[in-house]
Amino acid sequence: MSLFYVSSQIILFGCALFLAGRSYQVGEKFAHSASMVISLAAAFIASSAAANLLLQQPGQDIQTLRRILDNLAYFAALPLIASALLAYAWQQDWSKAGWGRWLLALFALFELCRRSGIGAGYSQILALLCVTITLISLCKFRSGQTRLFGTLSLLCLAPALLLFSPASLLQMSNPTLFGLSLGGALALLSLALGKTRIS
User: Fold this and answer.
1) Is 0.85 surpassed by the pTM of this model?
2) Which residues of the chain have pLDDT under 70?
3) How far apart are CA 40 and CA 38, in angstroms?
4) From residue 143, how far is each of 98, 164, 176, 199 by CA, in Å?
5) Would you state the pLDDT for residue 3?
6) Please, are residues 151 and 191 in contact by the beta-carbon 8 Å criterion?
7) What whole-number distance in Å separates Cα of residue 197 and Cα of residue 156?
8) d(Cα 188, Cα 168) in Å, to the nearest integer?
9) Could you tell me the residue ranges of all domains in the chain?
10) What is the reported pLDDT for 198?
11) How far does Cα 112 stand from its chain's mean position?
12) Is 123 in contact with 169 (CB distance < 8 Å)?
């Protein structure tokens, strides 16, 4: 592992934990399920970053565990964050059971696309949807500060998912830049959520 890659994963880990903690505090304060979902999703991303740092031993089991955590971060956590932002923006408080069913649906959809041999296409569509849903959600927030931090977060999220992720639309996949830009997006998102009031 290069020093830059290690640094990017440490930054991603720290930013994901920061978002998880901030979202949990907002969820506790306003009893809002979407904030708790963002907190859980951020914990998934932090787990993936930690695995990329710590699980470097050779062996099929270790590699399988890393792949599972990476898939959990990309195919579950990121769509969950985008979905929660949508609920956040429209001030909808979906039930825990509803969020659980949505998470199971994401698992099922991923597995279906993987078995059908269209995993790469699904990854790219998912990246586009996450960016688009985040943009739509930002348009609904009323606070100027929330929109500012949210827009800055989107400016980091878009290249992370569309350019540097494993599902890069332009074949520019770069794990180091992906970790750095996604970490920046999560940190800025935590500042945006910290400025939001749930009614």
Assistant:
1) yes
2) 1, 194-199
3) 5
4) 28, 30, 33, 13
5) 86
6) no
7) 24
8) 22
9) 3-194
10) 46
11) 21
12) no
